[in-house]
Amino acid sequence: MARENINDLLAFVAVAREGSFTKAAAQLGVSQSALSHTIRSLETRLGVRLLTRTTRSVSPTEAGDYLLQRVGSSFDEIEAGLAAVSHFRDSPRGTIRITAAEHATNSVIWPKLSKVMANYPDIVVEVNIDYGMGDIVAQRYDIGIRLGDQVAKDMIAVRISDDLKMAIVGTPAYFAKIAPPKAPQDLSGHNCVTLRLPTHGGLMAWELEKDGHSVKVRVGGQWVFNSSSQVLRAALLDYGLAYVPEDMALDHIADGRLVRVLEDWCQPFPGYHLYYPNRRGASPALGVVIDALRHRV
User: What are the HTH lysR-type domain coordinates in residue numbering (predicted)?
Assistant: First the structure.
């Protein structure tokens, strides 16, 4: 439909509802003569009279009433939709989709967002646990969360955690059967619970560093998972060594259920960052989530 036809229909709806060319012209911000010309042109194009005019009033004909009921309600829905959209600009509401690894979800997203989301009942947070490095724009995510050195350079990045450390742990019962490793090369003789990465299908190497010397150890064992929590669970059940984020193991180390080894080879590395594309006019809901996750020293 041509734009001028839409404007003519809007003019017709205004006249029919106001019952007056004078009032409708004032509402639309046009002259009464221009409005009369618009209505006559619309009636001519449609080939039917839409309004009955008298010296005192204007009322829709049967055809005009039929058109008013259908077109008028459609314009009302459009107005209501536009008003609803404006709320997204003025108040935090809507769905924020986040992609993150399991550990980031458990250690950062949930602890931080759970404290503030009760204040924003109109915000829905959808978290997809994913170890892949997908395109958040193509996959329609609002935010991605990855380690600092994994964030694409064309994204806006915001730090959301301290630096992290890994821990290599096993149970006392496991070490009763085999001596703890003293150096990275000793890991080849151990049953190591491993993590499979979805990005290329390979097993995650255990990255170790000491005195400026870095090594990536390819380990193996009886159990392979794609979840860090399951890797830790297997280690707690005496199935071998686990290589997990330090905070996942600290309580178990403190209570004696796990023993830490090669700690001097586990150095800090850049913590989690959220990232998102440079979008003008980002929604208030996105701003709330970013501010809640932002790392504060």
Answer: 4-61
Cα distance between residue 297 and residue 150, in whole Å: 22
3-state secondary structure of 183: coil
Mean pLDDT for 256-263 is 98
- Give this prediction's pTM: 0.67
Report the largest interatomic distance among the alpha carbons of the chain, rounded to a whole angstrom: 106
C-alpha span between 256 and 176 (Å, rounded): 14
Instruction: Check if the beta carbon of residue 222 is closer than 8 Å to that of residue 239.
Output: yes
The fold of the 3-74 domain, in CATH, is Arc Repressor Mutant, subunit A (1.10.10)
- CATH code assigned to 89-163+271-293: 3.40.190.10
pLDDT at 73: 79
Residues 6+ apart with CB under 8 A from 193: 221, 222, 223, 224, 225, 231, 234, 235, 239, 240, 241, 242
Please give the C-alpha separations between residue 244 and each of 133, 194, 226, 228, 264, in angstroms, as whole numbers: 19, 10, 12, 6, 15
CATH class of 165-269: alpha beta
